[in-house]
Amino acid sequence: MHETAQITDERLWAVQKALERAQDLVARSLVAGDKRLEVVYLKTIADEDKVVRQFIRPFFEAEGDAFADYLASLVYQVPYTTPEAAVDLVLNGHLLVAYRGRAFLYDIRIVKDDQPLPADIEATLHGPQNALGHNLLLNVHLLRNRYRNAALAVELAELGEKSHTNIALLYDATRVRPKSLAILREKVQKGGIEVLFAAGQLERAFARPHRTLFPTFMVTDRPDRIVYELNRGKVVVLIHGTPFALVAPGYFFDFFSAMDDLYYPGWVRTFFLGLRFTALVVTLITPGLYVALTAFNPGVFRAQLTLSIAGSRAAVPFSAFFEMLFMMIALELLLEASVRLPKSISATSTTVGGLILGQAMTAAGLVSDIMLIVAAVVAISSFVIPVNAMFYAVRIARYPILLLCSLYGLVGLGIGLVGLIFFLAGKESFGEPYLYLPFDPKPTEKGPEGA
Q1: N or C end: fewer C-beta atoms under 10 angstroms in the chain?
Q2: pLDDT, one tens digit for every residue, the chain (451 residues)
């Protein structure tokens, strides 16, 4: 049952009526002499120790108008405006107070997820090892500690018609790209989300449906990367309840940079960047190239290699296309299993499963030895991509190229690569060209440093 005791203030009664289904609702009327204090809050998300220590005890101890002055002096108060707004704030952990004809709301929510998490998703060897946390205020605190600049702007908002999730937009006012900021603000105001609980969900809602294979947001949990992107003029979206932030706009080449690149000498950084782009090309074209050369253009190889591939495939009853498709799907299943299984057994299960599966398929003549080598090279190359969102996009993008190669050989490979480049060249991320190069001085009206 609700904890109630003759609430008489109409403003509090309206809130109590709206929340009558909540059995954790506390609506109480306290009387001390000629003074009367009425409070409404949800005890499951509000800190009852704060209620007693900061409101009930001072109410009984204060004399005369001292308590009214005390309520007015609290810095975290929010004036009462409408019953609907008050209900939303009470659901967000606020205490609603009525005293001598005045009503206020005070933020007294319980904060338990106030510690940053370890940086396990986007690991680095030499950089900071802390990630964001689940609490929005904690995340803003972490970023302000690393970016102590008066130009850092923080805009608070709510998203989710039912969840009313707190979000924050952060940007450097002297470097931000105005067009990207305006587009992002418009999308936030438009809303269109009923329940928001994850950064990826917001990314999908903001992007155009069914045209989002390549990510236009950078999703990260690293405060150092966020600060780096803020300094480059980007906008960061923090969401309460998730340790991941969205960074917009997201350029294609941004997804191949790792934070370790900032800590290595120039030549080392250049080498590893080249290695990542080489891995991108390998994982994109190797499946289709194998099918094209095996089925359409075997004369490209030297005679010894051609005979070796033909001998390896002699017992395989499928075409090169179906052999490659079968192997790629098996790899996708192993990768998905490694993600979904508990961490304590995922590595062992997928490793043993991959070894047994590969050995059994070659022994049964379903795939060739050469195919296992090609599949292993493709899988290893895809793991080099440092950001997961681009990792998934590249994994999917290689299937259309594989299909074109199975139909037209090397010509199909050329068609696929040209079509992919044209698609990326015509794509935008919040008003910015998706293939913007980091060393290009003026992608739009502002340069990479807001000049």
Answers
A1: N
A2: 345 456 677 888 888 888 888 888 888 888 888 888 989 999 888 888 888 999 999 998 888 778 888 888 887 788 888 888 888 888 888 999 988 888 889 988 877 666 777 777 777 777 778 888 888 888 998 899 889 888 999 998 888 888 888 889 999 999 998 888 998 888 888 877 888 877 777 877 777 654 678 888 888 888 989 999 999 999 999 998 888 999 988 899 888 888 888 888 888 888 988 999 999 999 999 999 988 888 887 777 777 767 777 776 777 777 888 888 888 888 888 888 777 777 666 666 666 666 677 777 777 777 778 888 888 889 889 888 888 888 889 999 999 999 999 999 899 999 999 999 999 988 888 888 888 876 544 444 444 333 3
* CB of 90 closer than 8 Å to CB of 96: yes
Give the separation between CA 152 and CA 226, rounded to whole angstroms.
12
On the CB side of 209, CA atoms within 13 Å amount to 0
The residue assigned the tokens 């001085």 is 441
Residues 6 or more apart whose CB falls under 8 angstroms from that of 318 comprise 326, 366
| Phi, psi (rounded to 5 degrees) for 450 | 80, 15
Does residue 199 contact residue 215 with C-beta atoms inside 8 Å?
no
Residue burial 358-385, b: 16+ Cβ < 10 Å; e: rest: beebbeeebbbebbbebbebbbebbebb
Neighbour tally for 280: CB within 10 Å: 19
Contacts 24+ apart (CB under 8 A), 367-372: 367/316, 367/323, 367/326, 367/327, 368/309, 368/312, 368/313, 368/315, 368/316, 368/323, 369/312, 370/308, 370/309, 370/312, 370/313, 371/290, 371/312, 371/313, 371/316, 371/323, 371/324, 371/327, 372/327
Tokens of 60: 């009984």
Residue 404 · residue 416 · CB < 8 Å? yes
- Measured between alpha carbons, how far is residue 374 from residues 278, 400, 407 in Å? 15, 18, 20
Task: Indicate if the alpha-carbon torsion angle 144, 146, 147, 150 is positive or negative.
Answer: positive
Kindly state the helix (H) or strand (E) to which residue 344 belongs, with its residue range: helix 343-364
Q: What's the pTM value of the predicted model, to 2 decimals?
A: 0.78
- Going from N- to C-terminal start, the domains of the chain cover 3-107, 136-250, 270-429
**C-alpha to C-alpha distance for 241 and 163, rounded to whole angstroms:** 11
β-partners of residue 384 are: none
Distances in Å between the Cα of 438 and the Cα atoms of 251, 257, 390 are: 9, 11, 17
